[in-house]
């Protein structure tokens, strides 16, 4: 399939691979990876929010 090499893993699979195969879950690693994965998307959304709202408003008007 597509995800044979580690370079092509998606973000959730990369986060899971941090804790896979261990006896305990290291939550600080999971939370740090999740924050680093979510932060750019949140910043991009805040930056482009006005265009998204404008586009949705224009699409709703007939």
Describe the structure.
By secondary structure, this protein is an all-alpha fold. The chain has one domain (6-60). Helix content is 69%, strand content 0%. It contains two helices and no strands. The protein has helices at residues 11-19, 27-60. Helix 1 packs antiparallel against helix 2 (27-60). The radius of gyration is 18 Å and the shape is elongated. The chain starts with 10 loop residues before the first helix and ends with a helix. The relative contact order is 0.08. The mean pLDDT is 82.
Keywords:
62 residues, mainly alpha, elongated
Radius of gyration: 18 Å
Helix-strand string: HH
**What class do helices, strands and sheet pairing give?**
mainly alpha
Query: What is the total domain count?
Result: 1
- Average pLDDT works out at 82
Summarize the structure.
The chain has two helices and no strands. By secondary structure, the chain is mostly helical.
How is this fold's topology laid out?
Layout: H1 11-19, H2 27-60
């Amino acid at each position: 399939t597509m995800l044979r090499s580690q370079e092509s893993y998606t973000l959730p699979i990369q986060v899971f691979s941090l804790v896979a195969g261990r006896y305990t879950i290291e939550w600080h690693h999971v939370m740090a990876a999740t924050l680093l994965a979510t932060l750019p998307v949140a910043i991009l959304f805040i930056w482009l929010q006005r265009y998204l709202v404008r586009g949705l408003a224009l699409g709703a008007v007939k």
